Amino acid sequence: MGKENYIRVPITMPDDMVSYLEENSLKSKVTGGHKLANTEIVRAAINAIRKLDIDYTAVKDEDDLRNRILEAKASYSTKK
């Protein structure tokens, strides 16, 4: 999919999450890779969780969803 098909989606996140993205995008560069854009990291994370069998049934909040993602990741890892 080319960028011409992208839709801008504004998201908000706390400072510590933005700092995490920035630190890790720079870590890639100083270790021989390229500086990753924050949007590249977010898109890669979404593409990774799309491969998981996450149960979204009756999710109550962000913490509940995070736990379900981690459970699905653990299950995915044991299938390999």
What's the arrangement of secondary structure elements?
Elements: H1 15-30, H2 38-50, H3 62-79
Can you give a write-up of this model?
The chain is mostly helical and 80 residues long. The chain has one domain. The protein has 3 helices and no strands. It is globular and about 40 Å long. It starts with 14 loop residues before the first helix and ends with a helix. The mean pLDDT is 93.
Give the biggest sheet: none
How far apart lie the N and C ends? Answer: 28 Å
Tally of helical runs: 3
Share of residues in strands: under 5%
Shape descriptor: globular
Structural class estimated from helices and strands: mainly alpha
Q: SSE order, as H and E?
A: HHH
| Uncertain runs | none
Q: What's the average pLDDT?
A: 93
Provide the number of structural domains.
1
* Radius of gyration (Å): 15 Å
